[in-house]
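**Fold in tokens:**
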Amino acid sequence: MKNLMPKARNLILAALGTALLAGGATTAQAAQSSPTQAASTQAKPTIVLLHGAFADGSTWSEVTGRLQHDGYTVVAPAVPLRGIAADTSYLSGVLATIPGPKVLVGHSYGGALVSELADTADVKSLVYVAAFIPQAGETLGALNSQFPGSELGPQLVPISYPGGLDLGIKPENSRAVFAADLPVRQANVFVAAERPIAASAFDEPVAETAPATLPKYAVIPTGDHAIAPAAERFMAKRAHATITEIPGASHLVALSQPAAVTTVIERAAR
């Protein structure tokens, strides 16, 4: 028995050494995988969310939180609402500060800006949410009046000031046009913060058509009363966008159906 004890001890020590070496290899592998995982996280594109007319970045609040939870960097800049050329110029500067790949997402009027900005460096895909997808030379006003279903025109209110003319929305009818499927309290918060837009924005010809080579996705809320759903379908099909329709959703679909909108954006990001 005494002769066996040293042999047993040696066997145990050998086994422990093997285990420690294996543990060291596992640790080394983990150390090597960490940079890869970090690179994978960094490889996710930044999601740039552009709001529409009469709105601000808060229209993306529910979507923003979901995207951030899923590991995306999100930028939702304030659009000046001074017209397509002026807003595009400003947003070009914003995009220049964002490194790496980007997915551009436009709501409503923001869709026209997405198309204008599509050839910016590192833009990988485009998403249009209840949005205009115009082609070069078209105006948003003409596109929206081409199809029945929009109730926006009669609700516009001129706001004149020295040197210019803006358009606002009659607050008493804004919920019906923009947010019919939102709770009254939430819709009223949106109405209280509505921002006027330069009247010329709807008559200003778009300068660029989004490149045919970029993947495009369109979310069409069938209960939209601001942009006619028929107009949205026409523009999305013409642009060869992958279409997702959300039955009964309002123009503010990013607030009323944020999970569905987020799913489309993340599909575009992948």
